[in-house]
Amino acid sequence: MAVPYKSRPPAPPSVAAMILVTGGLGSIGSHTARALLDLGESVVVTAHRTTRLPDFLPEEDVVVESLDTTDAEAFLDLGKRHAISGVVHLAAAPWDTPDPVEYLRAESSALLNALAAARAWGVGRFAVASTIAAYAGVPDTPWQEDSPLPTVAAHQIPVFKRTAELWTTLAGPGAVNLRIGTIWGPLGVGDNPFFALPRLLTAAVRGEDPDLTPPRPPARADDATDLCYVKDCGRAIALLMAAERLSHSVYNISSGSLVRYAEVVDAINRAVPGADLSLPPGGAPGGHLDITRLQQDTGFVPEYDVERAVRDYVAWLRDHDA
Fold first, then answer.
1. Is residue 27 a part of any domain in this protein?
2. Residue 165, in any domain of the structure
3. Which letter, b or e, does each residue of 59-81 get, where b requires 16 or more Cβ atoms within 10 Å of its Cβ?
4. Could you tell me the CATH number of the domain that includes residue 168?
5. What is the tens place of the pLDDT at every residue in 82-126?
């Protein structure tokens, strides 16, 4: 069960250094916060649209701050209440903002406010979410962080993320760009607009026939993606934040392997008896990320293969009114 979000009055700066996670009550943000707690870090998360604390984040261990990331003064004020030593900037404007100019304005304001605040606070590490979509058009796979990238992007999200990577380099040492792969799991969007697997699993748990009519993305047996469970994603980000030294400013965050949709559907059918999902033949092989840098600098190893991820996600959906 989720517990209601509680606003907190201004307080003196925390004695312990804290890592700030913007967008910290979203799927990736909340699992990053959980992983940071598991590493012994103190955490403050920001919330804007989301108003409930997930049950896997203990209320007594997490400070929640209401924040509109486009408000520069409110952003800076966080540093008056907490001794912030690091920032993970995951907050994002709604992906479906219809006006791309408004989307880019909101995203740009939030990132620049985060960078300015981090500089004012003197944080040691500033990590910002980028995307696997930065590699769209790169022919060779697995995709490596030093791969030359195309000069065009097909959607407003990779347009901004690639620009943000350049801006973030201006923050100097300690800035880290996170090229995050195809993520799914608890608190994720069941009717995901970019890939069909969350929709298939959610429909199976609900006992429904999955609706994959356009504009929803298609699903075929041989479609494949670099699928990463959100708990692994959060742990990878936390390890990067906790690492004493990092050798690079860009890291791929994912499982580092290509997963066929047919493999996921088979796992769903085993986890949800009676689901009887099937996919039409054909599909695109997709591409996947090389996570060698991440592994070398943090020791990260994914804990969730397809079978374990599906079982865990199914159990979570059943416990949370899927």
1. yes
2. yes
3. eeebbbbebbbbebebbeebbeb
4. 3.40.50.720
5. 999 999 999 988 877 888 889 889 999 999 999 999 999 999 999
Q: How far is CA 213 from CA 85, 107, 193, 264, in A?
A: 46, 30, 12, 20
Measured CA to CA, the distance from residue 248 to residue 298 in angstroms comes to 12
Distance separating alpha carbons of residues 319 and 312, to the nearest angstrom: 11
CB 229 within 8 A of CB 187: no
In the chain, the number of structural domains is: 1
Strand partners, 178: 129, 251
Is residue 230 within 8 Å of residue 185, measured between CB atoms? yes
Per the structure, the complete domain to which residue 178 belongs is given by 18-186+227-256+287-303
Report how far apart the first and last C-alpha atoms of the chain are (Å, whole number).
12
Is there a domain that residue 13 lies in?
A: no
Cβ distance 194 to 218 under 8 Å? no
Instruction: Convert the pLDDT of each residue in 147-177 to its tens digit.
Output: 998 877 778 888 888 888 888 877 777 899 9
Please indicate, yes or no, if residue 28 is contained in any of the structural domains. yes
